[in-house]
């Protein structure tokens, strides 16, 4: 191999090695971004402070499934867990997205679900993560041709919210 090729190869190897870190807070890393001290988590049913019934059970189920799918943690009962994720649905609002020009009727509507949640370390009682006014917006089409039900928008907002909540449970960067 020529000397220039060897130098170029060494420079590339140094650049790649320099970009990686063992700690995700210091740069790119192959290490997990989830707290290694947490192995178990309890997720009681979210409180529902809105008039939209049943959303609390659907959101809790979606969060549990997302934790099981994307994290190394096990879901256990409250008395056995190292941490607890508690939350409340604080808002469920409809927003007009598009209207028909001729009649002014709503063609596409948005469902915004707002929550607050707190992830607590049961050993110390200290919150690991706490968020207020955390929301997700999803759309559905109630217009005559499609006639999607409100639940279509709610289910999509719940899916998005569960992904975002679990993403917030990563170690602090």
Please, could you describe this protein's structure?
- With 173 residues, the chain is an alpha/beta fold.
- It has two domains: 1-31; 34-168, Double Stranded RNA Binding Domain (2-Layer Sandwich).
- Helices cover 30% and strands 34% of the residues.
- It has three helices and eight strands, in the order αββββαββββα.
- It has helices at residues 3-19, 55-70, 150-168, and strands at residues 20-21, 28-29, 40-42, 47-48, 74-75, 83-99, 106-121, 127-140.
- The strands form two sheets. Strands 3, 4, 5, 6, 7 and 8 form a six-stranded mixed β-sheet that branches. It has a two-stranded parallel ribbon with strand order 1-2.
- Strand 7 and strand 8 (127-140) form a beta hairpin.
- Helix 2 (55-70) packs across helix 3 (150-168).
- The protein is flat.
How many domain units? Answer: 2
**Second rung of CATH, namely the architecture of the largest domain:** 2-Layer Sandwich
Low-confidence stretches: none
**% residues in beta strands:** 25-35%
Mean pLDDT score: 83
What proportion of the residues is helical, as a percent range? 25-40%
Question: Gap between N and C termini, in Å?
Answer: 42 Å
- Main beta sheet: 6 strands, mixed
- What do we call the CATH topology of the largest domain? Double Stranded RNA Binding Domain
The top-level CATH class of the largest domain is Alpha Beta
Q: SSE string, helix = H, strand = E?
A: HEEEEHEEEEH
Q: Give the helix tally.
A: 3
Element layout with pairings:
Layout: H1 3-19, E1 20-21, E2 28-29, E3 40-42, E4 47-48, H2 55-70, E5 74-75, E6 83-99, E7 106-121, E8 127-140, H3 150-168
Parallel strand pairs: 1-2, 3-5, 3-6, 4-6
Antiparallel strand pairs: 6-7, 7-8
């Amino acid at each position: 191999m020529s000397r220039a090729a060897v130098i170029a190869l060494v420079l590339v190897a140094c650049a790649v090695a320099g970009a990686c870190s063992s700690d995700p807070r210091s740069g790119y890393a192959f290490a997990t971004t989830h707290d290694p001290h947490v192995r178990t988590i309890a997720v009681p049913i979210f409180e529902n402070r809105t008039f939209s019934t049943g959303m609390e059970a659907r959101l809790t189920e979606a969060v549990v499934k997302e934790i099981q799918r994307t994290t190394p943690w096990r879901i256990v009962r409250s008395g056995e867990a190292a941490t607890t994720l508690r939350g409340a649905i604080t808002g469920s609002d409809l927003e007009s997205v598009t209207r028909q020009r001729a009649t002014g009727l709503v063609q596409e509507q948005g469902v915004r679900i707002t929550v607050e949640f707190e992830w607590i370390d049961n050993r110390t009682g200290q919150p690991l993560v706490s968020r207020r006014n955390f929301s997700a917006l999803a759309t559905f089409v109630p217009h005559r041709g499609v006639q999607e039900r409100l639940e279509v928008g709610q289910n999509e907002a719940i899916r998005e919210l569960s992904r975002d909540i679990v993403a917030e449970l990563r170690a602090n960067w």
